[in-house]
Amino acid sequence: MKRFVYVNDESCGESYCDNRVSNTKYTLWNFLPKNLLEQFRRFMNQYFLLIACLQLWSRITPVSPVTTWGPLAIIFIVSASKEAWDDYNRYLSDKKANERKVWVVKDGIRGQIKAQEIHVGNIVWLHENDEIPCDLVLIGTSDPQGICYVETAALDGETDLKTRIIPSICANLSSDQLGKVKGVLECPNPDNDIRRFDANMRLFPPIIDNEKCPLAINNTLLQSCYLRYTEWACGVAIYTGNETKSGMSRGTAEPKLTAADSMIDKLTVAIFVFQIVVVLVLGFAGNIWKDSNGRKHWYLMYPAEGPWYDFLVIPLRFELLCSIMIPISIKVTLDLAKGVYAKFIDCDEQMFDRETSTPAHSANTAISEDLGQVEYILSDKTGTLTENIMIFRRCCINNTQYGDDSGDALKDTRLLNAVSSNEPDVVKFLMVMALCNTVVPIKSNDGAISYKAQSQDEEALVNAASNLNMVLTSKDSSSAEICFNSSKFQYELLDVLEFTSDRKRMSVVVKEGGSGKFLLLSKGADEAIFPRSNPGQQTKTYLEAVEMYSHLGLRTLCLGWRELEEGEYKEWSKKFQEASCSLDNRECKIAEVCHSLEQGINILGVTAIEDRLQDGVPETIKLLRSAGINVWMLTGDKQNTAIQIALLCNLITPESNGQLLSINGKTEDEILRSLERALVIMKTTPERKDLAFVLDGWTLEIILKHSMESFTRLAMLSRTAICCRMTPLQKAQLVGILKTVGYLTLAIGDGGNDVRMIQEANIGVGISGREGLQAARAADYSIGKFKFLKRLILVHGRYSYNRTAFISQYSFYKSLLICFIQILFSFVTGLSGTSLFNSISLMAYNVFYTSLPVMTILFDKDMSETTVLQYPQILLYSQAGRLLNPSTFAGWFGRSLYHALVVFLITVHTNAYEQSNMEEISMVALSGCIWLQAFVVTLDTNSFTYLQVILIWGNFVAFYIINLILSSVPTLQMYTVMWRLCSQPSYWITMALIVTIGMGPVLALRYLRNVYRPSAIDVLQQIEQTNGPTQTSRNVESATRIYLDQLLTDLRRNKGSIHQPLLSDSVASIR
Amino acid sequence: MVIPVLAFVGLIFIPIGLACIVSSNKVVEVVYRYDTKCVPGNMLHNKVAYIQNASIDKTCTRTLKIPRDMKRPIYIYYQLDKFYQNHRRYSTSRSDAQLREPKAAGDVAEFCKPEAFAANGRPIVPCGLIAWSLFNDTYSFARRNRLPRDGDHGPPPLTVSKRGISWPSERGHLFGKNVFPRNFQNGSLVGGGQLDPRKPLSEQEDLMVWMRTAALPRFRKLYGRMEADLVAGELITVTVRNSYNSYSYAGGEKAVVLSTAGWLGGRNGFLGRAYVVVGMACFLLALLLTLLCLVFPMKEEHLLLR
């Protein structure tokens, strides 16, 4: 399948879609059916729909169908409007993109049109920093060599600039001709492969050369990339609108489900099963009662012979009666709560980064609870732990080391003297620093020069060179000028041997202006440069310097140079051109050719650049580690630097208390053996000792290929790991491994190379840093600094988890309470499935009376933030899922059963005989439930604010007001009932009795537990109450710490069993 | 914190409980169960046949002894047991609209079946099983020991007032002033009592009381009120016209109840007893916890924290 694109000719060729980009999920017309369909894909909604439909059968429904249809409709409207709002926002942003003005050639004249009006075949003109509106084939640029630069980060997450070349056939077109050119392009139908474009192009006369010319991906400008460092470029639109490569590869992200959510789902299923059992038992018993007993009750007038489905009627009635067991409001309540948690994060003043004025932001509002359950943090290094501000600290030139602990190399007088005395080695060194890079100098109007660089290291080097009087003053694609000690030197830039992560080095070939000498200037990682050094040269001191610098946590680069013979260069240049133009396997060929030139390099020296740790990183990591979170560092940097940074930021402990196991080797066997050894050491070492392992990308690759299982085991045993030289894919793989074992992972990073890992992890956190915003955009949460992570996890995550745990279980509690009362009542109604409560009460109970007080929990803090940050160990409770698991749920289940018994039995006994009419008893029972639940919420609220008091007791008062109003409506059955009840002293006495009997044992049990088996949370709460949150005396604090540690080690030992069902069923099998 | 609260609750609950018990005990209650006693000995083996046989005179007169002084007003209830007014089939078998509005007479709908339409196809007013099974035993009372002699008028006879036994809300709103019984109890199967077709529903107080369904299978409903004082030891005769079928199902007890009322309503010792028990339990618990704390003090490190 091919498409033919006629360049600049709207009259011929098929018509393809216009360039209207649409990311919206719905249109105005399909919104309702599509959204409904989507919502009904959820089990809960299907269940409620079934219940609602059953309720339409009046023969079996115990209450009016409104009780289910009403809430169901509300839930649907709420989620539908949320979807609609999101979609509307997407529509708005699409619209903005679609209505952006672009320059397009129309009928030979250049004019501005809206982006959405671009058609296939149009010639589009772009200027520097424009976003590319659709997929184009490049036909002309401002660069005489036909090159332009694009940033493809939005497409593939890679931040380095990519070079795009115009196809040879268009090479000689003048900009005048470009507007008039006609031709035909033969290209494949749209697909989502952003690395492949196999097409060809033929131009029509008057262009003479009308041979077919092959096109590849490097002739294209793809939608959503940016044009950089190129004044202008123009291209032919080939794919437009949603048919572009980026449009085709846009997938909808799978919604993430939190561990707490999946726990709730499991509990829901359990309750569902329980409900089915209850229904079957009661239905069966009801049928028996009917046959053995019911027919004798003449006033019931049971017909002798019922319809065939008669035996189903009673079970179905019970099914409807029990359907309230699963709270219909739970999803809405939880969604609302999650929205509030996200707002709390967005509005947190203390997570506002003043330096860059970035607030914390939660892009994904649904997973705050997971933050409180994080077990593994996988962190990027550069830009995440460090500031990603590179500062030139030290260097080693000609066996002399400049810069020491007291000062930078830039202030080292020896170096300054060497510069001023034109010492040749130093000058050469500086020249390489200034020239061997892809930095672009930009002169501002006042003559000051600033540098634009994609690599922070290069920028640091060029800046350092300019500080040492070697200033790169101007540069274009073919020449560069440097100014040293105020004399200017011209260089012709011949070739750039680009940096790739495989080569780990880059070189440039320049021709010196004055002497006409050809020079090869190289810089790169030590292991990439030293093996290529001049065999005669002594590299020992440099090696030592590299060693020393990386021990200080500095990033090192080796600089070198070689003079080339003209003939040698010419010959090589031809080969290089050939390789650059080759159609298949180009990268490999280029690397080979480069390799042939980069030989016998004279090492000039070593630079050491410091990437400072971010503010507060060591403290944060220490805190997170003592909170029981395992922190892994994944970096693209080299091992020594990574280890040093890890030491600096408390990730690993120095030798005496810790041990760093290095997994490495030259061959596969060696690596695997070293892995096994590490595993044995991990298993046998006592827990006290801090063990960590370190490996690099190559090792990981081999291990994953051969010994995935032992690595998984190692990963589970190791609290800390340093993984260096990781590719973005490997980072994501590591996250994937931990995830499959069932751990809850959080990935944090700042750059495009972290995007995959961020998307793979349960929680992705992006740092809105210097490497752009891609990571922050792909992430669920974005923060300004690494140090905010502790607040995000310990404060927001923990509170969110606690609150969700309470809200969800409480929702079940209140539903079960009312349902158990209905079941108990059915025992005195001949198991006929009569509802004790009327429809209005039932609906209001779920939607109103019980949903409002629970909202107070959203503002509840079980202990103050300072206490949590002071005793981070407490996170273990939420981490291990101690507050929401089958056993806590069993507690709530028991409580609701007990409360139902209390309410029902007391009501039945106090309102016996002449007071036993239906309306009164139902109101008494309902008020009993309301009283109890108000006290339950109060008991479980730890902090009191006015809002909480108002919500709990205001709701309580509202209950009475509403019911008194309802009792004043003459047409309702409950007319005057509430007035009558409220005027009876016995009613109030009954309420007091219900509350006392209901809450007394709960209180007493809690007291006993507090005194004899306090949990760490209880202990801290008591400390807070007695001492206040801030001032804890030293000995109390140490005592607390010891006590907490004791409690928590017990807990941790049991953690496995408690913890497993939370996350994954596969855990047990792997362990 | 918890111990004082418990003690405090105990302190409050016991007096309230005692007050409730005293109040409940002040209420004088005479319960006379007549469902078997009013069946002649030869019919005991087949009570259903007895009650369904219209030709038998079902009047039965018994003497009751008043245990303590009873001050007016004395409420008369009938009490049924194992009667499931709360059964789903039964409790929904009514049409509230029909009771309220004459226009809604035809609004008998699904839930009134099988007592929705009369044989002639006309809607029954009031429809449904509840109305159809209206309780129809009647009671009359007389003083026994001081029969009126000539010239001595003696105390007035014990008249039972049936006015005002329903709630004003029922008379005023739930049962219509212009709604008259139609086609009621004229089917082949007669359930319970008849209604006077000339009286509007808003005056049929027995029906209102009956239709205010009970939530429990054992319930009392107000039959009438006696504006008379009775003295301890006094004998009164109660004449029961026993016509309501409580015999076809097991445990179908019927009783007539005379009772005075206190501030907590009728005689019901439950609240008082429960309060006293809970109060004592609170005290006991407080004591127990205190002892527990004394015998097994908190762990040392835990104490340090307090």
UniProtKB/TrEMBL annotation, chain A:
<feature type="transmembrane region" description="Helical">
    <location>
        <begin position="889"/>
        <end position="909"/>
    </location>
</feature>
<dbReference type="InterPro" id="IPR059000">
    <property type="entry name" value="ATPase_P-type_domA"/>
</dbReference>
<dbReference type="Pfam" id="PF00122">
    <property type="entry name" value="E1-E2_ATPase"/>
</dbReference>
<dbReference type="GO" id="GO:0045332">
    <property type="term" value="P:phospholipid translocation"/>
</dbReference>
<feature type="binding site">
    <location>
        <position position="725"/>
    </location>
    <ligand>
        <name>ATP</name>
    </ligand>
</feature>
<dbReference type="InterPro" id="IPR032630">
    <property type="entry name" value="P_typ_ATPase_c"/>
</dbReference>
<protein>
    <recommendedName>
        <fullName>Phospholipid-transporting ATPase</fullName>
        <ecNumber>7.6.2.1</ecNumber>
    </recommendedName>
</protein>
<dbReference type="InterPro" id="IPR008250">
    <property type="entry name" value="ATPase_P-typ_transduc_dom_A_sf"/>
</dbReference>
<feature type="domain" description="P-type ATPase A">
    <location>
        <begin position="98"/>
        <end position="160"/>
    </location>
</feature>
<dbReference type="InterPro" id="IPR023298">
    <property type="entry name" value="ATPase_P-typ_TM_dom_sf"/>
</dbReference>
<feature type="transmembrane region" description="Helical">
    <location>
        <begin position="986"/>
        <end position="1005"/>
    </location>
</feature>
<feature type="transmembrane region" description="Helical">
    <location>
        <begin position="839"/>
        <end position="859"/>
    </location>
</feature>
<feature type="binding site">
    <location>
        <position position="731"/>
    </location>
    <ligand>
        <name>ATP</name>
    </ligand>
</feature>
<dbReference type="GO" id="GO:0140326">
    <property type="term" value="F:ATPase-coupled intramembrane lipid transporter activity"/>
</dbReference>
<dbReference type="GO" id="GO:0000287">
    <property type="term" value="F:magnesium ion binding"/>
</dbReference>
<feature type="binding site">
    <location>
        <position position="754"/>
    </location>
    <ligand>
        <name>ATP</name>
    </ligand>
</feature>
<keyword id="KW-1278">Translocase</keyword>
<feature type="domain" description="P-type ATPase N-terminal">
    <location>
        <begin position="5"/>
        <end position="69"/>
    </location>
</feature>
<keyword id="KW-1133">Transmembrane helix</keyword>
<feature type="binding site">
    <location>
        <position position="458"/>
    </location>
    <ligand>
        <name>ATP</name>
    </ligand>
</feature>
<dbReference type="InterPro" id="IPR032631">
    <property type="entry name" value="P-type_ATPase_N"/>
</dbReference>
<dbReference type="Pfam" id="PF16209">
    <property type="entry name" value="PhoLip_ATPase_N"/>
</dbReference>
From TrEMBL, chain B:
<keyword id="KW-0472">Membrane</keyword>
<dbReference type="Pfam" id="PF03381">
    <property type="entry name" value="CDC50"/>
</dbReference>
<comment type="similarity">
    <text>Belongs to the CDC50/LEM3 family.</text>
</comment>
<feature type="transmembrane region" description="Helical">
    <location>
        <begin position="274"/>
        <end position="296"/>
    </location>
</feature>
<protein>
    <recommendedName>
        <fullName>ALA-interacting subunit</fullName>
    </recommendedName>
</protein>
<dbReference type="InterPro" id="IPR005045">
    <property type="entry name" value="CDC50/LEM3_fam"/>
</dbReference>
<keyword id="KW-0732">Signal</keyword>
<dbReference type="GO" id="GO:0016020">
    <property type="term" value="C:membrane"/>
</dbReference>
<keyword id="KW-1133">Transmembrane helix</keyword>
<feature type="signal peptide">
    <location>
        <begin position="1"/>
        <end position="19"/>
    </location>
</feature>
<keyword id="KW-0812">Transmembrane</keyword>
